[in-house]
Amino acid sequence: MAQILLVEPDTILAKTYAAFLQRAGHHVLRAGDAQSAINACDAVQPDCIVLEIQLPQHNGIEFLYELRSHADWQRIPVIILSQRTTDQLSMDAPKMLELGINGFCYKPDTSLTTLQVLIDDILQAVSS
Where are the beta strands (DSSP E) in the chain? Predict the structure, then answer.
């Protein structure tokens, strides 16, 4: 069972994603903003982070810079799950590599099962 930190400001979506991932065998911590996500990482280092870039107060990119500034958190896999496309976010491959992003999912095109498979594949690759 992996510890997943889900950073999603939309409460309904967060509950839906969390319930599905829990049924898939993961333990899910939820955070609705960047500061809550940092606090959650402090409390329990997650095995993987699923992150919506559009967050209140500090955006997801700022959160990633903060996350990666901590030595203990530099290797935590991050999956972006966003309403915005990579083009809208100006997220080219070098930028994603710099921020340690392991996957990118555009919400309207990503099923819950697809997200779960991506998480499981990334966790398996990291543990190998």
Answer: 3-7, 27-31, 48-51, 78-82, 101-106
The mean of the pLDDT values for the chain is 89
CATH number (domain holding residue 100): 3.40.50.2300
Q: Give 113's contacts (C-beta < 8 A, 6+ positions apart).
A: none
Residue with tokens 């810079």: 65
Q: How many domains does the chain have?
A: 1
Q: What is the pLDDT of residues 65-114, one digit of tens each?
A: 999 999 999 999 999 998 877 666 666 666 677 788 898 899 999 999 99
117 to 49, 95, 99, 110, 114: CA distances (angstroms): 14, 24, 22, 11, 5
